[in-house]
Design brief:
Elements lengths: L10 E4 L3 H12 L4 E4 L7 H5 L15 H9 L16 H18 L3 E3 L3 E7 L15 E7 L2 E7 L1 E4 L27 E2 L8 H7 L3 E5 L3 H16 L4 E5 L18 H14 L4 E4 L4 E6 L5 E5 L4 E5 L1 E4 L28 H4 L14 H4 L6 E3 L1 H5 L7 H15 L3 H5 L47
Parallel strand pairs: 1-2, 1-7, 2-3, 7-16, 8-15, 9-10, 9-15, 10-11
Antiparallel strand pairs: 4-5, 5-6, 12-13, 13-14
Helix pairs in contact: 1-4, 1-11, 6-7
């Protein structure tokens, strides 16, 4: 039987990002004692790292309903009217919503601890091999904080720690290529802020190789194309593993997330500019340092991109499962997502319709009281919207509170986005069931955009 959170054994939420704070908001409304543990210096620390990037989701899709109720009750503003249709930057999301929400949660009794990194999870006094009666024993949450290592007792744990800290490598086989680590000073694994003087100094007038084909790669292309227009001599080589880039830009005007459609069109224009060279079917195999200091990136088929001053590898993210090693998990072997959820979100195999709203039934783990939510729940799948995460934690917190009827209910209708995602097959052609929509007039399939709608 699941333990009920108490002041001595609270609900522990790992991560003070958008989904973790939403989980805490639902817990407050249900009267559950809650502690939020955040490795960063403040709320939305991961979002702040890409604060210069504009989301393609508008404000109305970035505020959890429970969080909105708490904010309004506390007299704090919530985006509405025309503002609700605007897409903020990551920095604005933190400053105008996540930081005020964290303050309101603290005022409501939630303990939000920053600079507290969870490094281990187990059952109190039991490792993974002790199978009997585990659900009757509280969790032991091992935490590294400003005062050192301590253990927090918890009745339930919601892991909303995301995937931001573990970017995918440049190497095509999932591991860093030979020479990649050694060249780390010239490789960035996130969208560069070309308005930052230090970043601008590294990239302006240089040869930059961009690897990846998702929203982050598109943002990078757009930013570097603008930099090239402002700083002549800046040139970009865009390498992608797929055989063509036609399907990478999405549905354009047919995309019912206008910000994402617009991003795809801007990226398409950037890819066609004089400053950008596109190389398809390129799977990085080796990174070499040339005598003059520049890099040479060699593909597994022997092709080479030489004279590279800087690499931007935006090849997705993966969850950190290391601190979950002593609890019982049931994860999909490909995605590292909860096994029951994986068929709903697999970018190559899911049906070309909506990724169904889902909750506790697909997220709970064999370790009773443990749930993976948010981007963490999607593992390596590149398809996630904040709206989906908000529905996840509404259902999960309801189940933790013992309200199984509410946990089983679906309270979310997702917007159609006019484009279906597909994973590239090994030969470089798109796998999965569809590409960009053939017509903007008929019903369009739905895909949930990575990075909670970043444009």
């Amino acid at each position: 039987m699941a333990l009920v959170p108490t002041s001595d054994q609270p609900l522990v939420v790992v991560g003070a990002g958008p989904i973790g704070l939403a989980a805490a908001a639902h817990a407050v409304e249900r009267g559950l004692p809650t502690v939020v543990l955040e490795a960063g210096d403040g709320p939305g620390a991961a979002v702040a790292d890409w604060g210069h990037v504009r989301l393609f989701s508008p404000w109305r899709e970035l505020v959890d309903p429970s969080a909105a109720r708490l904010l309004r009750a506390a007299g704090r503003p919530v985006p509405d009217g025309e503002t609700a249709d605007e897409a903020p930057t990551g920095a604005a999301w933190v400053a105008d919503h996540l930081a005020p929400l964290a303050d309101v949660l603290a005022d409501a009794g939630v303990e939000v601890r920053y600079r507290h990194r969870v490094v281990g999870l187990s059952r109190a006094g039991r490792d993974r091999l002790v199978a009997g009666g585990r659900d009757e024993v509280p969790f032991a949450v091992h935490v590294e904080g400003p005062d050192g290592h301590h253990v927090l007792t918890a009745a339930a744990v919601v892991d909303a720690s995301g995937t931001w800290g573990r970017p995918g490598p440049l190497g095509a086989d999932g591991w860093p290529t030979p020479g990649e680590r050694e060249a780390g000073d010239a490789i960035t694994y996130a969208v560069p802020d070309v308005d930052d003087p230090a970043v601008r100094g590294r990239l302006a007038g240089r040869h930059v190789l961009v690897a990846g084909s998702g929203a982050s790669a598109q943002n990078t292309l757009v930013a570097l194309d603008r930099l090239a227009a402002e700083k002549p001599g800046t040139r970009v080589t865009w390498v992608v593993r797929r055989g063509d880039v036609g399907g990478a830009f999405g549905g354009g005007e047919a995309d019912e997330l206008p910000g994402r459609g617009a991003l795809g069109e801007r990226a398409r224009r950037a890819a066609g500019s004089d400053a950008v060279e596109v190389v398809t079917g390129f799977r990085a195999g080796v990174v070499r340092r040339e005598p003059g200091g520049a890099l040479s990136v060699v593909a597994t088929d022997g092709r080479e991109v030489a004279g590279v001053d800087h690499v931007v590898a935006v090849t997705g993210f993966r969850p950190d499962l290391s601190w979950l090693d002593e609890v019982h998990l049931d994860l999909d072997g490909e995605l590292s997502a909860p096994r029951a959820l994986a068929p709903e979100i697999h970018p190559a195999h899911h049906s070309c319709g909506t990724v169904s709203p889902h909750g506790a039934d697909l997220l709970r783990q064999p370790e009773g009281g443990l749930y993976l939510v948010g981007m963490k729940s999607y593992g390596r799948a590149p398809s996630f919207l904040a709206l989906t995460g908000f529905e996840q934690v509404r259902s999960v917190v309801a189940e933790i509170a013992g309200d199984h009827e509410a946990a089983a209910r679906v309270d979310l209708v997702l917007p159609e986005t006019g484009v279906c995602g597909a994973a590239p097959a090994y030969d470089g052609q798109a796998g999965g069931c569809c590409g960009a929509p053939a017509s903007a007039d008929g019903p369009q399939p739905v895909v949930l955009g990575r990075a909670v709608g970043v444009s």
